[in-house]
Amino acid sequence: MKRVSIGQRGWAVVVAVAIAAGVPLVAGTLGGAQVIAFTLTIDKVVTGVVPPGTTFTVTMSCLTPLSTGAGTPSSDTTTPTTGASDASDSFPPTITFDANGHPTTTNTGTLSVGESCTATETDRGGAQSVTYGCATTNALEMECVSSQQVRVIPDDDAGAAATITVTNSFPPPPPPPITAAFTG
């Protein structure tokens, strides 16, 4: 029987499917080692009238502390993890959404302990305004550093999930035309 390794990106798909199905991914074991899941999802909300064919692009910037060599992460030295061939997270460097706010690329990924990720919308699709919101399932394990940044707190062991929501506001639809009615 041939063994097949699904790799890090494969696990990201498993995690994303489990999250979508409502399966809690907190902690478990894999080959006797404890596996702790820290997941981040980027969501999109659009309000107002969005022109057909509009797309939105969110850029992910993730950093993880470098080890000092003594097993302790350095608090002042970080290395980028998003988009590199040896990235520790499962995010593509950009996430795209359609005019209705549905993702057209992967929008959920896993983070490692100490990792920090920031979502920045780089293509607003003509929106009048952009706002961000961050929420976590366990603030003791993952913290919202700001409305568009989340960080996995080092040395914790329960796992958690976070969502950064990017909201685009477009003008409301124009009012219907007023027609005058004349009588006799």
Structural class of the helices, strands and pairings?
mainly beta
**Number of helical regions:** 1
Give the helices and strands as they follow along the chain: HEEEEEEEEEEEE
Low-confidence stretches: 1-33, 67-89
Q: Outline the biggest β-sheet.
A: 6 strands, antiparallel
Number of spatially distinct domains: 1
Beta fraction of the residues?
35-45%
Q: Which descriptor suits the 3D outline?
A: elongated
- Cα radius of gyration in angstroms: 21 Å
Helix content: under 10%
Tally the beta strands. Answer: 12
Average residue-wise pLDDT: 74
Give the CA-CA distance, first to last residue.
91 Å
General description of the model:
The protein is built from one helix and twelve strands, in the order H-E-E-E-E-E-E-E-E-E-E-E-E. The chain has 184 residues and is mainly beta. It has one domain. It is elongated and about 80 Å long. It starts with 6 loop residues before the first helix and ends in a 15-residue tail after the last strand. The relative contact order is 0.23. The N terminus is likely disordered.
What's the quick description here?
The protein is mainly beta and 184 residues long. The chain is 8% helix and 43% strand.
Task: Furnish the topology, listing elements before pairings.
Elements: H1 7-20, E1 27-30, E2 33-36, E3 38-47, E4 56-67, E5 73-80, E6 94-97, E7 108-110, E8 116-123, E9 129-136, E10 142-146, E11 149-152, E12 160-169
Parallel strand pairs: 3-12
Antiparallel strand pairs: 1-2, 3-7, 4-5, 4-6, 4-8, 8-11, 9-12, 10-11
